[in-house]
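Lab notebook, bench 4. We co-purified these components, and the gel suggests they stay together. Before we commit to crystallization screens, I want a quick structural picture of the whole thing.
Request: model the full complex, all chains together.
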Amino acid sequence: MKNPLPNPLPDAMPLRDALRGLRHAVRRGGETLLDVMPLDQLPPPASQLAGAMIREMGELAKGMGEVASGFARLALGGNDTPHGAPLQLTARIGAEDTFAQGIYAALRLVLQRLDAPSVYVSETAARMAFVSLLPDQRQGQNADIAAALSLSLAEVKVMRGTSAQDAAHVPGRAIEHAAIFAVMLWLQSNRSEAEDEAALASATDLALVVATEADAAFSARDSAKLAALYAEFAAHV
Amino acid sequence: MSDLPPLSGSLPPTNEPLRIAVRRMRWFRAAFDAYVTAIGDKIGCTYKIDDAKLAGIFVRWLRAVERQKPANRQDRHDYFEFAAGLMLRELTADMPLSALMPPAKSGAESAAAFWPEGYACTMFCLTVHSAAMQQEFKDKPQVSVAIDDLRHWWSFKENAQMDASFSVGFLLTVLGHQPNWMMPDVFRVRLSNELQQS
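Here is the predicted assembly.
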C-alpha cells in the first residue's frame, strides 16, 4: 500500500557540512603536499606526476564545493550570498536555518578578506549556536542579542581547522573571534542591499582594529563587554 | 581668506547627512580613496594607501570625537571644526599615505611638493569639513593665506612628527583661528570652562 504522506525532506545541512569537511580536508591535503614537496626540485617525470596529482586534488575539492553549494540551493533554498538579514530572532519556523546559512556565507566572505579562505565553517554548528540560546538571551537590544549569539558561535566552534598561518592574519592570532565579531557587527549595521558587500568589508576592518578588545571579551565570556563594543561600532560600519 | 581648491565633487555621494556618513567606515574609506586619487591627479602624484592604518585611524578618530563631544548644541559649529582637526591629528600620527613619486604638476616651493602626504591629508580634512559645514550651517568656510605659506608647512611637519596634537592647531590656523597651542587637541569650549572653574 502506498504511503499517503510524502517522506519529509532529509536534513541537508549536516550533509552539506560533511561535503564541505571533505573539501576542506582535500584542500588542506593539497596545501600540505605543496608545503612539503619541493616540486621545483624534483626531476622529471616525478615533478610532472606530483604536479598532476596536486591539480587533481584541487579539481576534486572544487567539485565537492559545487556539490555542497548545489545542495544548499536545491534542498533548502539556501543561498551563498548574504542578504543582510536583520537581527530579529523570532520563533518562526526555520529561523535557525536562515541564520545558519547567512552566518556561513558571511563568514566565508570575511575569511576571504582575512586571507584565510580555507578555514572550515560549519553551518550545522551555526544552527546549533542559534538553537542553544536561552529565551531571555533572545530579548533585549540588538547588541545584547548579538553578544549572546557571538559567544554561542564561539562555543560551538563554528570555525575549525584554523592553521597558524591563518591565525597570524589577525592581531593576537584570534581569527575566529575577529571573524565572528565582524559578521555580527555587520548584521547590526544600517545598510542597503547594494551596500552589503562594502559594509561587510568595513565590518571586517573594524573587527581587526578592535580584535584585541573583542578577543579579551570572548575569552572572558564577557557578554556585556562584547555588547558594549557592538553598541559602540554598529552605527559606524 | 580664500576658497578651498574645488575638489569637493570628488567625495562619493551619500543619502545621509555628511556628518553621519563620515562616521561610517565604508563612506570614510571611499571618500578618502576618491579624494586622494583626485588630488593626486591635480598635483601629478600617485599615492599608496595603507587600508589597515586607515581603519585604525578611523576608530581612534571616532573615539576621540565621542570623548570630547560637547553636551551643549550651541557648541556644534565649533566642534565641527575641532573634529576636522582631530581627524588630521590621527592621520598625521599614523600616516596612511605614501607618495610614490614627487608631484609632477606642483611647483618646487609648494606645500604639495614639500610634503605630498601631509598636503593630501590636510586638504581631505578641509574638504570634508567644508562640505559638512555647508550642509549643516549653510556656512562655506574660508581658508587663511597661511595655507600657501611654506613656513607654516615646515612648522606643521616638524612639530606634528614630535607631537601629533600640533596638527589640530595647524588646521584651526588654516581656518583662520588662533588655537590654544598648549593643548590644541582639547576642545576649546571645554578647556575655557575648566579654566573658569579652576
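Chain B has a mean pLDDT of 91. Worth comparing against the SEC data before the next meeting. The two ends of chain B are 36 Å apart (CA to CA).
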